[in-house]
Design goal:
heterodimer; A: mainly beta; four-stranded antiparallel beta sheet; B: mainly beta; six-stranded mixed beta sheet; five-stranded antiparallel beta sheet
Amino acid sequence: EAGVAQSPRYKIIEKRQSVAFWCNPISGHATLYWYQQILGQGPKLLIQFQNNGVVDDSQLPKDRFSAERLKGVDSTLKIQPAKLEDSAVYLCASRHPEYTGELFFGEGSRLTVL
Amino acid sequence: RKEVEQDPGPFNVPEGATVAFNCTYSNSASQSFFWYRQDCRKEPKLLMSVYSSGNEDGRFTAQLNRASQYISLLIRDSKLSDSATYLCAVYLNRDDKIIFGKGTRLHILP
């Protein structure tokens, strides 16, 4: 079974530039999450989708971050304009409808903002 | 109070020793509990679920104390390969949300 795919793996940009990350979850996983993990901290939930609808985006900085999952499958997370404090790993995870706790994570997209 | 709290460590433990760490949670409505393992520069992976009756998987034992709102992870006969960050995760059924702690770093020393 293919895992969660994310790209790009690494991205270096300057502040005020924009960046987009892509995620393709495991087939059949209706729930998709984007987490931000800053070095030395645990994953922080940014946004959660159920199929193509947003379940929770309360911690998404909406002035600069946006995310979509138009067809209920793959998803993109965009940052525009980026700030220095956005340097982090952006983890995408998906979950099978019947298993409440097991998230399957992608390898993450590591962003460095200079 | 943070929703999920863990001692960040690091815990430096000699190989073969037993180590335990706890995680506290603030929301009494929390439904399910989990330990994830995260290796350096890798993604988190589920280590084990935590059941009310406690559960064991080889050298790993997880326990839940609902009254005191904490879960624990015990690692016996620690191996060098156990060196990692251990993330506590709490599933909130009402919000269908999974919240992670900051993680506890474990270093097993040869």
